[in-house]
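Why this split exists: single-chain examples teach little about how molecules sit against one another. For that reason, every record in the complexes split bundles all components of an assembly together and asks for one structure covering all of them. Below is a record exactly as it appears in the raw files.
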Amino acid sequence: MAKKPSIPKGTRDFSPQDVAKRNYIMDTIKSSFKLYGFQPIETPSFENSETLMGKYGEEGDRLIFKILNSGDFLKKLDASALSEKDSQHITSHISEKALRYDLTVPFARYVVQHQNELVFPFKRYQMQPVWRADRPQKGRFREFWQCDADVVGSDSLWQEVELVQLYDEVLSKLQLHRCTIKINNRKILSGIAEVIGAEDKLIDFTVALDKLDKIGEEGVKKEMLEKGISESAIEKLQTLFSFKGNTSERLNSLSELLTNSQLGLQGIEEVKFVIDTVQNLGLISSHLELDVTLARGLDYYTGAIFEVSAPERVQMGSIGGGGRYDDLTGIFGLKNMSGVGISFGLDRIYLVLEELQLFPKTVEQNTRVLFINFGNEEAFYAMQAISFLRKHNIAAELYPDVAKMGKQMTYADKREIPFVVLAGGNEIASKTYTLKIMQTGSQESFSLDGLIETVKH
Amino acid sequence: MAKKPSIPKGTRDFSPQDVAKRNYIMDTIKSSFKLYGFQPIETPSFENSETLMGKYGEEGDRLIFKILNSGDFLKKLDASALSEKDSQHITSHISEKALRYDLTVPFARYVVQHQNELVFPFKRYQMQPVWRADRPQKGRFREFWQCDADVVGSDSLWQEVELVQLYDEVLSKLQLHRCTIKINNRKILSGIAEVIGAEDKLIDFTVALDKLDKIGEEGVKKEMLEKGISESAIEKLQTLFSFKGNTSERLNSLSELLTNSQLGLQGIEEVKFVIDTVQNLGLISSHLELDVTLARGLDYYTGAIFEVSAPERVQMGSIGGGGRYDDLTGIFGLKNMSGVGISFGLDRIYLVLEELQLFPKTVEQNTRVLFINFGNEEAFYAMQAISFLRKHNIAAELYPDVAKMGKQMTYADKREIPFVVLAGGNEIASKTYTLKIMQTGSQESFSLDGLIETVKH
């Protein structure tokens, strides 16, 4: 096997530096989740296929990674099924398990399965990898991490308020200031579709509207026409295309448009409560904004819809999103459980922090002291000090081999270890340690206590 | 879908309590790994099949979970292959990826793939789930976590010394005192096989010897005979069956037995160095012991072999193991890279800590303060205090709904939240908060600052 090994496309190896930076983001998110009363759960990497299949639409089903049954998986399969080579049909016979596609469906499954052990409203967070057989591209991977916080069992709008605050808290802690948190409400979209008489085309209508940023007013209108939405209906939408003013003014024009839709007006009320309350409580660094073109997750969201954009100076899609789904657990037979949640896109946040150079310098926890190895006797002397340093929570290591001095120093240098200790016969005799500060090159002799004091800071 | 959902056999959901306890163990291991100079890496959950297949023996190949190719996976498959229904043959045509089976092979692959970016000796740790299609049983799962620390690129025995110390450090931090760390050396086993003239039967011989604890001297002898090891050879092993005395005495009798095997004597030298040095440096709470029947991982270990047993009062197999493999990366074409490492069995350590009630009471990080929801005005007043508490790093939450008082108190009770704040009209008027201490039932009125001071402790 002379061929250099590789990893599957769309997956990644994470170096020590990568892991440190990713943990910095995840730890920040995690500590905020906890402050807000969310508790961690974890679910298996693979679920029974029936748990996942059919929950993400046809496209989703295709993108789910299926696991081949163990053993002689073809044994029970009838020969004629095989000869037809119908991959889709055969899949269900040779695969019973699949890798999770997101954290929401496993969460719904968890809630239903454990409903008798849980205290509702149940606030959970979950940070685990998910897998999708998507075409890999920049910022899109086949294995990636989701960081979700959801509440299930309450339809209180205070949750929406708190989730906006939570976004703001995390982003501010990451020094990612001036992010925009966009909010919309499915009921507003339904109301619009209702008043323009395109209720049966809600999805087509919102998918087109969602592209306003990308393809502009004319593009959206063209797509709507193509989808069979009438010219007169589109005309009524002019308010949306020329949406101006501050949030309160926008909500007023929306109210006028939706005056005949009870559902639409309810959506406006909900958004208004969240925006007003958040503004009265205040945000640290983010900006909350009504965006009626926001239509993500329309297959399942029934109330609030959230999306977070990185600061304007960075070119990056959304770095988070979420919303309310009135019947989260209905797919598994537990009715009337409203859920609301948000998700952080770890990989994209990583790219943004990298681009803006916002990772703290101290993020990598590295060895602080390397002890040069001059031979077994010296190494034993060094190991006594190393044990002592470690007891004082200072990461230290002995260069394992009696290699040339230059090689050992190069190791310290490349590993960016700030302190090197040289202890040979003289030091052993005088019970001292010679410390070299790598940055300055200066050397000084210390007792063990002095050594600890010096390398601590 | 009225059927209650479930998860695949051998997998687990982890509740908030489970996650907290597991994180306690993993964080303890992780912090010790860092103190010893190990750096974290992470590798993808699935690897190319060719990376994994053939690395764990025939049995291992069977236990590897294979991932079905996406799309029309049968398309290119030749019809005659299908009609023969040869599952094993077909697997390689419909599956190109597989879930990782351990962390060692992916680590070897990582080292070879990234050899030009790494500084050797490379000390890495890795804590990730692995998957095996094993028959599930108590303490054995299809998805479980490995916590590994390995050094590659040095054959210094100081690594073995440090790895024993590392075991001792982690176990002691977990309050898991009096664990036994067993050490052996592949060269000793090879030496024994050599001097009894059973070199060609090394594996059979050690597999049998490994069972001494379980099936006793007679059982082992019987199995050896069955495997074709001669009676006269077995007779020479009497030393091992009646192995007595302290470590130094045992090493002496071994030396006599192995006096004609250069390899065997080298193994004794190595073990002696590790045991002597560790004893001179001292262990915190564990006990290091020579065990010549220890033969785990003989397919790959070439030098030291480690295994850790839980304290004697617990019935549990090994909670960790490891060893040295002289040619770790050879399977991927990079020769002469010696590696040595240890692994912690998270699931078993968990069971042991549970049984011995060694999880600290503070392990679950929970919400400290719940604010009762009396209505929107009161909730807004509460939310101002909640934001303030969170700024002071105190986990607080508002009960989201205006539910009956009893229901809200029950929630606090079941969630084991220690403090509840009641703030209604009177409190708003006097800018105070009424705090109820759940354990005692006592209530007292505080300013916001007083509230923080009280709930902090």
